[in-house]
Amino acid sequence: MKFKGLLILGLFLVFQVNSQEVIRFQDFSQSSDLVCPPIKKTGFKLYQNASNTEDINSLPDDETLESIKKAYQGNVNQLPVEFTSHQNSGPYKIGIWGDSHAAANFMTEELIRFIGLDADQALPTFIPPSMGRPGVRLPIRKFCQSPTWQMNYAFTGVNNEHYGPALLKLNTNIPDSYLWIDFRSKNNNMNQLKQLNILFSKTKKGSAKLGIQIDGRPEKMIEINNSLASYLSIQGDSLFGVIKIRLIEGGVSIDGFVPIYDIKAQVYVDTFGIPGATIKGWQGIQKSYIDSLKAPTDYDLIILEYGTNEGSHLPFNSTLYQQLLRESLLNFRSIYPSSSCLLMGPTDRGIWHKKTYTKGKKKLIKAEPMPDFLMYSKIHQEITQIQKDVGQDFACSSWSWQEAMGGPGGAYTWIKHTPPLMAKDLIHLTVQGYQETARKLGSDIKLPALIHLKEPE
């Protein structure tokens, strides 16, 4: 390992793999707001002739909905939820993994409000490097990112890589690729970080060189020789907020960020949501790599919210899904053996009946055959039942999101609600729908009582 920099008192970086070295910074200052560099947009704009037709989507009317719901009998009872107390003496710690439903972070934010806290009282202990991924909202103030970064995902199973808790990696080997992050609260502009660990590895032969800049101070270069599970610890005598990372040479892969704040938390909440993700991401994760990253693992409660994307692959194969879930939970428990576990099944899902008219709905051109309005509802109910059955073998409770929406067909009820609780795609929810879900979930698992088992540090 090689480090270049002036050794002086003040804010310092510690790059640690097997040993510890120090690069120190001076001139303490308050973080300034990020102003992102302009990014040139490429590509051609496509022009299409205006269509003389328009599609009209319709829902089943109330009478039809009641009829088809009665014709399909089935129910997944909620499994009684029993969670253990704290694993440590600090604030209660929750980890939420899932797909696009979790990635939007609306449920997490409402869960925090449900237990009577605000964002500055519920802090993250791990922030995934999913900046720039559409559909993801992170507990940071702002970020700027060059388009030269790429994401690899554990659930795709394409790349033979090691993955940290985020189940994704942010990679680049393009010189001058940058990632700037303002870790301050969205509620105020005061510096709150007293330490930040950046978890990463190099991805090409030879060393990798990074430029690190903190709150506008001169950039310092760090040379990385370790190929796996490295971390850079930024610490200081005063608080800081904005970190700028620039690749100088080689290739680097970022696994995530571990912030340590100066303010005291009453609860820690980490959200790891990836649009399109499935439980398969847990098959390839390795305990040895998690341990070498020194990533937090002491969660009191872990919620695994999956099933929507598994149910989208038709025809749905329940035997293969059961095997996938069992293998994934086995690996999950090797990393988080004592955390309370809740499997959160998929939402209810609907189907539109599509009809095509001439402009102005003057004439019906064609109508698709009347669909099975409960086709996905049945699949999601089967997924939830499998989660309930398999989960018990791994000390995981089950919560049926579909039943919380009223059972099969609930998607149609929720989209007709005022305001709508279901999004127009009949897959996702509106912000109000996610907030309603969080309140139902928080009430069912008695979350406020769990959170207040211990006083904050």
Description:
The structure is a single chain. The protein has 2 domains: 166 residues, Sandwich (Jelly Rolls); 251 residues, 3-Layer(aba) Sandwich (Rossmann fold). It is α+β, with helices and mostly antiparallel strands. The N terminus is likely disordered. The protein has a 7-stranded antiparallel β-sheet, with no helix packed on it. The longest helix has 18 residues. The relative contact order is 0.19. It is built from 10 helices and 22 strands.
List the helices and strands and how they pair.
Blueprint (H helix, E strand, L loop, with lengths): L1 E2 L7 E6 L3 E6 L27 E6 L3 H10 L20 E7 L1 H4 L2 H9 L7 E2 L18 E4 L4 E4 L14 E5 L5 E5 L10 E10 L5 E7 L5 E5 L5 E11 L1 E8 L2 E10 L5 E7 L13 H7 L7 E5 L12 H18 L4 E5 L8 E6 L5 E4 L7 H17 L4 E4 L1 H4 L5 H6 L15 H14 L2 H5 L6
Helix pairs in contact: 3-9, 5-6
Can you identify the CATH superfamily of the largest domain?
SGNH hydrolase
Strand-residue fraction?
25-35%
Q: In the CATH hierarchy, what is the architecture of the largest domain at level 2?
A: 3-Layer(aba) Sandwich
Per DSSP, the total helix count is 10
What is the typical, i.e. mean, pLDDT?
85
Instruction: Tell me the distance between the termini.
Output: 37 Å
The coarse overall form would be globular
Could you give the count of β-strands? 22
Low-confidence stretches: 1-12, 14-23
